Amino acid sequence: MARMKFLCDADRCIECNACVTACKNENDVPWGINRRRVVTVNDGKPGERSVSMACMHCTDAPCAAVCPVDCFYTTADAVVLHSKDLCIGCGYCFYACPFGAPQYPRVGNFGSRGKMDKCTFCAAGPEQDSPEIEYQKYGANRLAEGKLPLCAEMCSTKSLLAGDGEIIAEIYKERVTQRGYGSGAWGWRTAYRETVGV
Amino acid sequence: MRIWSLDRLISPVVAAFILALGLLVAPAWAQNTTANAPAAQAVSEQQLLDELGKIQGRITIPDQKAATLQQPQGRDYQSFQRSTLPWVGAVAIIGMLLAIALFFFIRGRVRTQAGESRQKILRFNALERLMHWTTATAFIVLAITGLNLIFGRRLVLPLIGPEAFSTWSSWSKYAHHFVSWAFMLGVLVMLVVWVWYNLPDRYDANWIKSAGGLLDKSNRTHPPAGRFNTGQKLVFWSVVLGGISLSVSGIYMLFPFAFTDINGMQTAQYVHAIIGVLMVAVIIAHIYIGTLGMEGAYEAMGSGTVDLNWAKEHHSAWVEEQQEKVGGRTPPHTAAEPAE
Questions:
Q1: In whole angstroms, how far apart are CA B282 and each of B71, B231, B288, B323?
Q2: Is position A64 within any domain?
Q3: Which of B75, B150, B184 best probes binding to A when mutated, by most A CB atoms within 10 angstroms?
Q4: Which helix (H) or strand (E) element contains residue A171?
Q5: Looking at beta carbons, which residues of chain A come within 8 Å of B59?
Q6: Residue B284 predicted with pLDDT over 60
Q7: How far is CA A178 from the centre of its chain?
Q8: Taking CA A85 as the corner, what is the angle to CA A81 and CA A86, rounded to the nearest 5 degrees?
């Protein structure tokens, strides 16, 4: 089985936000929720870099560890998913997530939030037997169709890579060797406790 | 009319010259600065994390929380929730239960030595009892629903299954949010009504020296005390100070991100959870000594009146004060003026 990961090559990202749009469209993401976002660091200064960020599907995921109702699970492909039926909207996963991935559709009184929503690596959720309900709650299940997440597939500069960790790390290493520079795999050390040696 | 004027000729020549010069110079300049090392000035993830602890940038969506690209402190929060908090909570609560069990086993129930006098004296008036029980009921609801978030996943979920546990946790979360306001109000009223009697007085030093007579198995040590003895004062101050810390950190969480950022929210959780479990331990001891642990103690908060002999043994200075007020007679509990 593959170990699915995201890798954003910050030296290629042009902050076009196509990944954000692709994700919203493919997964029919509710209004106000961004499963993926592009953050520009040192904006307007020499050496600024944009990084497309979503759930990194961490090794030993912090969200899963802190969830008081244990609604997270990890698939055989190491994708971190959760059940919206069990989620109580406490917000702990947002405090734990190093990447700000969990999103909540409602802001109610006294911090009520509604069921958490986050990137599923286009692998949807637990209702695999009823695709319509699954789509409604979690979005597309592209992985089941043998396709990779649409954000990475749509990326115009091929900055965002999604797929088996070893393969995308190899692609990135090759790039860095060829062009002679690379600002590294953003977030990998925090998410996977390893990085791409280049 | 002249077609070829001098100035008309000069300008294209000058323009061509400048352009040619530019074409020659520009690549050389570009090569020296960017072409060879386009990433030379690039921001580095590791450097940002080393210098600032987290990475923040600019985003084009309204949700400004999303501008934090990475906060590795989430991993610290993870280990706090997964091991630090359950350990501190378990040690504090189980430790307190064991200590009380040991105390009960060795010392037994604290009896009123002189027996019942059948004379009653008013100890807590209706307002005091109302505020005590409002705060107490709220605290018990908050403690159970709060402990559920720490230990429920480990202890209750395996028993009742994920669906039932999720439903219960969802309701308990709402209960925690709404009942918290009653607790906050109770703590504030308690502070105003009782703070005067809980300031240090001349009996405290002696009370502490003899440990309030708690360790005297013969039950003969009864250090004099005013309305509240030192042990009760300690409970009062831990409820007031602990309650205020819980309230402030709780308000941070009731209005997430209204007053602070992600790391501030984590700190609010650390403070709230640790003080919460310590308060549970303190209140367990308070409940014990107010009910099972001491004969005659519960009536004070139950009916509001206590037996005169009990009052003389445990709060001698207070009883003298009350009797002086009514001119040496025993104040009846039906006195028009509440005994305070």
A1: 35, 11, 10, 33
A2: yes
A3: B75
A4: helix A165-179
A5: 37-40
A6: yes
A7: 27
A8: 75
Length of chain B: 340
Q: ipTM value, please give it.
A: 0.94
Which domain does A39 fall in, by range? 4-192
Partners of residue B70 in chain A, C-beta under 8 Å: 53, 98-99, 186-187, 190
Q: Is residue A197 part of a domain?
A: no
* B175 in reach of chain A (CB within 8 A): no
State whether A11 and B39 contact (CB < 8 Å).
yes
What domains lie within chain B, and their CATH numbers? 120-325 (1.20.950.20)
pLDDT in tens, B92-144: 999 999 999 999 999 888 888 888 888 899 999 999 999 999 999 999 999 99
What would the pLDDT profile of A2-21 be if each residue is shown by its tens digit? Answer: 899 999 999 999 999 999 99
Q: Does A31 touch chain B (CB under 8 A)?
A: no
pLDDT-wise least confident of A4-18, A54-68, A102-116: A102-116
For B219-263, how does the pLDDT look when each residue is reduced to its tens digit (9 = 90+)?
777 888 889 999 999 999 999 999 999 999 999 999 999 999 999
The answer to whether A10 contacts chain B (CB < 8 Å) is yes
Measure CB to CB from residue A40 to each of B57, B148, B174 and give the nearest one: B57
Q: pTM of the predicted model, to two decimals?
A: 0.87
Find the helix packing angle between B85-107 and B262-290, rounded to 10°: 10
In sequence order, the 6+-apart residues with CB closer than 8 A to the CB of B173 are A88, A89, A90, B145, B149
B47 at the A interface (CB within 8 A)? no
Partner-chain contact A110 B153, CB within 8 Å? no
Burial class (CB in 10 A: 0-12, 13-18, 19+), B126: exposed
Whether residue A25 is contained in a domain is answered as: yes
| B262 touches A at CB < 8 Å | yes
CATH number at residue A25: 3.30.70.20
- Give the closest of A39, A67, A181 to B59, CB-based: A39
Chain A to chain B Cβ contacts (< 8 Å):
159
A102 CB within 8 Å of a chain B CB: no
Minimal-distance CA residue of chain B relative to A91: B256
Residue A90 belongs to a domain: yes
Nearest to B110 by CA among B229, B214, B224, B210: B214
**Nearest residue on chain A to B74, alpha-carbon basis:** A96
| Residue spans of alpha helices (H) in chain B | 6-30, 45-52, 73-79, 85-107, 126-155, 157-160, 162-194, 204-209, 230-254, 262-290, 298-302, 308-314, 316-325
